[in-house]
Each structure stands twice: as C-alpha cells, then as structure tokens.
Specification:
Elements (H helix, E strand, L loop, with lengths): L11 E2 L6 E2 L3 E5 L2 E5 L8 E3 L6 E3 L12 E3 L4 E4 L13 E3 L4 E4 L13 E3 L4 E5 L19 E3 L7 E2 L2 E2 L2 H42 L4 H19 L1
Parallel strand pairs: 5-7, 6-8, 7-9, 8-10, 9-11, 10-12, 12-13
Antiparallel strand pairs: 1-2, 3-4, 14-15
Helix pairs in contact: 1-2
C-alpha cells in the first residue's frame, strides 16, 4: 500500500485454451458495489466501514500512496481530516460519511485529480467548502448533514466568518432600513436648503411691505407641503 501499483498481473486459471478468471472481489466504490476481476491486482483498498472505530484518523494513513479506495463510513471517528490527505494521489473513492469529523475540509483536497467519489456527509464539519478544481465535480449530497458547512454546491451562503445565520439577515435588513431613512432625510435637507435659498431674498423684501405677513404665511405653507410630499 505504500507504493503505487502500475503493473497489472492477470490472475488466470485453467488450461491454455480455456483460461478464465476465478478470483474476484466486490468493493464498495462510487457509492455502489463493484466487482473486480481483470484488474484485481491493481486494487488497493481499505474498507473498515460499519464498525465501532473511535479516535482520530491517524495521519500515517496518508502515507499509503497506493490506496485506490478508502472507506471508513459508519464509525465514530472524530477530529479533523488530515491536511496531508491529498498525498493519496491515486485515490479514486473516499468515504468518510457518518462519523464525527470536525473542523474544515482541507483545501488541498481540490488537488486530488484522481478522486471520482467523495462522501463526507453526516459529520460535524464546518467552514467554507474549498470548491475549486476537482472539488467542483461533487454535488451537494457529498457534503450534506454538516450544519456548519457553507458555500460550494450547498444552498447555505457564507459570511466572512462562516455560515450566515438568521440574525445576520435581520441585522442586514435593519441596516438597509436605517440607510434608507438617513437617505430620505439627507435629500430632504438638500431640498429645504435649496428652497430656502431661493425664497429668502424675496422673503426679506416682502416682510418690509404691507404684504409681509401674508407672504410669510404663504412661504411656511409652501415648505410644509414640500416636506409632506417628499415623505
């Protein structure tokens, strides 16, 4: 398992004219059982799913560069997914679902170009999904069941610190209403200032005449109607 398998050894049985394959192996890959026969010698697999394993995933497992399938689903494995998981460059199928993994998904996983199946659902993972390169080939079901995850194929949007909650939405809505209220008063003050600038000279002159009182009342009503129309 510590070496990449590149040479296929055909496991023939029978006589020269009636050769056939007798050995085969069924492995849970791509989320379904697949039977290997001709390429059985190239299959390097660890399947410990559905057991009662506890503790953290040992980083030493990422030294097994010949691994093609790694299935640890249905256990009680906790801790973080090792950053060195991307060293498994021949890995085609990785299933870590239904465990207690926490922390973020290592960004280095986006460089695992051979990875065709990924399932990290139903854990306690959190943070932004590194949805680039190879990771963009996986849909939302690969990451579901992790309330702390956001971004990527999920419908949960991310804020600067992670998941955007309802409280953030309410704060944003309140902020928008406050900004709208401030904008109204800003433009109102500009309008009133403009109107006062036009009418003030005339008002000063009109007050000195016998029509001064009437003009003052008219000006006040004009300003009041302008304010009501704006609001």
């Amino acid at each position: 398992m510590t070496q990449q398998q590149t040479v296929n050894i055909y496991l023939f049985y029978g006589s020269y004219m009636t050769q056939y394959y007798q050995e085969n192996f069924a492995v849970n890959m791509y989320g379904q059982p697949l039977v290997y026969t001709k390429t059985l010698s190239l299959l390097t697999s660890i399947d410990l799913s559905g057991n009662n394993l506890h503790g953290e995933l040992p980083e030493q497992i990422t030294k097994l560069v010949g691994l093609v399938v790694l299935n640890l689903s249905g256990n009680h494995i906790s801790g973080r997914i090792p950053n060195s998981i991307s060293e498994l460059r021949q890995l085609l199928s990785l299933d870590l679902s239904d465990n207690n993994f926490s922390g973020g998904i290592p960004p280095s996983m986006s460089s695992m170009t051979f990875l065709a199946y990924l399932n990290v659902s139903n854990n306690k993972l959190s943070g932004i999904i590194p949805y680039t390169n190879q990771m963009t080939t996986f849909n939302a079901t690969s990451f579901s069941g992790n309330p702390g995850l956001c971004g990527g194929p999920l419908t949960v949007k991310c804020s600067d610190g992670g998941v955007t909650g309802d409280s953030d939405g309410r704060r944003n809505a309140d902020s928008d209403r406050d900004d709208s209220f401030i904008d109204k008063w800003f433009y109102l003050s500009i309008g009133l200032g403009y109107a006062a600038g036009l009418l003030l000279p005339y008002l000063t002159f009109a007050i000195r005449t016998s029509w001064g009182t009437y003009t003052l009342v008219l000006w006040i009503k004009l300003l009041q109607s302008f304010e009501l129309e704006f609001l």
